[in-house]
């Protein structure tokens, strides 16, 4: 498989928008994988992200093995914890929660992950992760014991995203969190994109094609959708190739 990151860069330069379907191992039943992935394959999705904030050990690997039986799309880990790391995936977003100040999610978990990553062939993509408040507590906030950046603090969001790039992150991922009551405003996406020289991922709260197109128009290079598909698989019908 070609480099996942290089393909993202190439698409960004060509202004080709990317879409990742986020699958939470804690919510996806194995018997539902075949039909679900069939719809993913028929959609405009370009990547499959797998991960969740609270997942039991071994569940992620079992799920990915099943997913791989049904698709050729790259499968990228979006791990909430070290126990979700598995060599069965193609790559991993090596997430640093730079919107928070808990050292465990800035460097602690990463140190813990090294011994597992050494034994894999995963493509490791350093990613600066910013959680933006959405009006309710998310699982990321609860598990990481950090607070999101307020939407009104736009300059803080911009400075944090740029700091991530200057620290060497290859991607910046801003999101409102799983099950967010509303998606990130186009104004925030646009201003963050203007600050960056690296690809921008946007996720959380996107539940319609209009919101998806709005995120792309504002500057998102890759959009991640999860909850919308979990709640209504027919959402794929709006995103056919």
Describe the structure.
Strands 1-2-3-4-5-6-7-8 form an eight-stranded parallel barrel, surrounded by six helices. The chain contains nine helices and eight strands. The chain has one domain (4-232): FMN-linked oxidoreductases (TIM Barrel, Alpha-Beta Barrel). By secondary structure, it is an alpha/beta fold. The radius of gyration is 16 Å and the shape is globular.
Classified in CATH, the superfamily is FMN-linked oxidoreductases
Could you give the order of the helices and strands?
A: HEHEHEEHEHHEHEHEH
Q: In what order do the strands lie side by side in the largest sheet?
A: 1-2-3-4-5-6-7-8
Mean pLDDT: 95
The helix content is 25-40%
How many domain regions? 1
CATH topology: TIM Barrel
Query: Alpha-carbon distance between the termini?
Result: 22 Å
What is the CATH domain class? Alpha Beta
- Strand proportion, as a percent range, falls in 15-25%
